[in-house]
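Journal club side-thread
Mid-discussion, someone asked how the predicted structure for our own chain would compare to the paper's figures. Pasting it here so we can look after the session.
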Amino acid sequence: MSAADSRLLRFDDLALEFPGGDGPGRDGAPAAKVLNGVDLSLERGEILGLVGESGSGKTVAGLATLGLLDRRARFTRGRLEFRGENIIGQSPAQHRRRRGLDIAMVFQDPMTSLNPFLRIGTQIIEVLRRRGMSRPDAKLAGAQWLGKMGLPKPEAQMKSYPHEMSGGMRQRVLIAIALALEPELLIADEPTTALDVTTQAEILALFLRLRETMGTAIIFITHDLGAVAGLADRMAVMYGGRIVEEAPVETFFAAPAHPYSQGLMASRPPLEGPRPHRLKLVGGTPPDPRHLPAGCAFAARCIQATSDLSCEELVPPDRQFGAQHRVACFWEGPR
């Protein structure tokens, strides 16, 4: 298999915006430029950690892959390829045929993603029926999937309502529903944010087993660097709707190269040694996507930005910093 054939998903200079003018008196308001030239690819069976602050464009990238964007969204350039096919501009029916069967998504809050009025069994059976299963077969397979996710007494859990389960159990149900059609790609959007540390570790271990047993490729979207340290093969850091750093996990955690990545790493409590009195912060706030700066989106917050580097005037190009390590930054200081 060639390198090109091994790529399951590819973002090629993808840009997307939401038009302004949503409310009274808002006609002519500037568009919100949410994705701004995203370049990223995912290999079959690979786990990619996609990290960044809220508003960086992570979730929108995932929703675009499933064709779940608001109908007002506009792609202004680039390509989004799944199995080598550009899926931008495809019909809602084409996206629906792919959704679940080829690509599935685990959303952040299982309580709002599951129907509170339907039993768990009803919801997972509905998904399995898409494979042409009879209702008895789908009921049996649904219980088996809940068991694979580590839920105790899965047959009994099929009769439960979402509110009768803990947060960790509901998250496992969502993962079971997402995987019931055995998709090639799973997009997990902040799946451990609301869970306790022990349950987080169990969910992360579950993702690793899925890759090992089913060959599932996973995009793990999170703002928690620690959550993907032992999970992902590769890291991609997103800021202002663009990938600003991409590297193998070991390389990234050993020597993050972008000032934003370094700021995120410095804001984490150390695992060893004395704890600082106060954690370092990345000062400032993310840019408004309706009023993006002309140059680097991070320049206003960057301690390395200077006029000599033209950070505020020019958008930094991607630079190869090492093997499989690229950075979108003018700064070439100590790494």
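Post-session note: The radius of gyration is 21 Å.
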